[in-house]
Amino acid sequence: MATTSQPLRGKTTCKKIFWAVFPHACFILSLVIYAFLGALMFSHIEGNRKVTVSEEYRTFLQNLTYLARKLSDNVTENDKMFKNDIRELFNTADPVWFINPEERWSFFGSLFFCCTVFTTVGYGNTYPVTRIGKYLCMLYALFGIPLMFLVLTDMGDILATVLSKSYNEFRKLQSKILASKLCSGSTCSKRNELKSRAQSKIVVNEPLTIMEVLRSQSGMKRRPVKYRNVELFEMLIAKENENTQSARNKSMERWSSCPELARGKTVSRVIENFDKIGKELEKLDVPIVLMVLVIFVYISCAAAILPNWERNMDFQEAFYFCFITLTTIGFGDTKLEHPKFFLFFSLYIIIGMEIVFIAFKLGQDRLIVLYKKVISFCAEKKMPSKKIYPK
User: Is the dihedral of CA 310, 314, 315, 319 positive or negative?
Assistant: First the structure.
């Protein structure tokens, strides 16, 4: 029996782990599939568009040719005016004129664009040009942004649990270290002796049964009718216990013989897990300074790695780029030469956005508490003092 029960326990634990991880994996997998489908769609629509020479592009080339002819040996005299003309001319230029659609809207480029859409970063250096691409971009964002927020909320519960447990363990360890430092050897030995003496004096009695309590009552033997009632009461309890035990055995037999019922039970548990999304994030209570420190360390790690493939970035520029990305600001002033390498940081971006989201949530809670205190303080100041009039 022992050999057969161990594999069954292993199978049940594996099933429990699977159904516990299933909701989280379902959200992440759906987001990945949604991103890949969007990449295929935009690479087909925007990458295969026909490049047409517009009138604006022709006038731009004419003005550029005119300024190039104007350049001569004595250009140093009008150097400032020439620079201003060049700057004004290039401000009128559209970046789409100098982009090959097939190169920009490759599969990895389109995947990078989709990630910037549903993460609400939107750098601005890649955007749809065709009318169908713009309409599909709006439709894609309409469903992708809620899915992304759902993934962030789901992963926020996991991160909130990890942060709260680690912070509580750190506080317990800190209190133990402080207690060991404050407690000297002689005082601790005296306290331990007093505790041992107090524990030796304490006598713990086992709980009495119903019959023992009733027998100890006065006049119990004089009333045999009540004694019979008590016996009947005990017999009813014993019978009820037997019924519950048999019902449990029958239910176990049902679950083992009828797997559909077991599946229904596991499905109901999975549905309960879906309903619990976002609950752990609301319970999180850690110092805001700790979250700021976590964000600083998290961004610093990426800022140290990113310049390895982005040669035009140093640590400070990479730190600024990661912060703008994780906070979903996305100015687009810093451009990536190799966006496909940055796609490998997709998990980093999701976790980092979640950490920033948790920090903003904690900051929001602290601000609400501060506003409550300020309003209550102002209300107490404005409240008129009660005057006691003589009767």
Answer: negative
**At 344, which helix (H) or strand (E)?**
none
Question: Going by C-beta distance under 8 Å and a sequence separation of 6 or more, which residues neighbour residue 161?
Answer: 280
Query: How far is 294 from 281, CA to CA, in rounded Å?
Result: 17
The Cα–Cα gap between 307 and 56 comes to 37
Dihedral of CA 184/189/192/194: which sign? negative
Q: What's the CATH class of domain 102-177+280-376? A: mainly alpha
Q: What are phi and psi of 278, to 5 degrees?
A: 90, -5
Q: Are the C-beta atoms of 34 and 118 separated by less than 8 Å?
A: yes
pLDDT digits (tens, 9 = 90+) for 66-100: 666 666 545 555 666 667 777 777 777 766 677 77
Q: Pick left, alpha or beta for residue 183 (phi over 0 → left; psi -120 to 50 → alpha; otherwise beta).
A: beta
Q: What is the pLDDT of residues 365-381, one digit of tens each?
A: 888 888 888 888 888 87
**Cβ atoms < 10 Å from Cβ of 262:** 15
* Secondary structure (3-state) at 285: coil
CA dist., res. 6 & res. 4, Å (int): 6
Entry pTM: 0.65
pLDDT at res. 93: 72
Q: What is the pLDDT of residue 211?
A: 56
- Asked if 113 contacts 125 with a C-beta cutoff of 8 angstroms, the reply is no
Give the type of residue at 350.
I
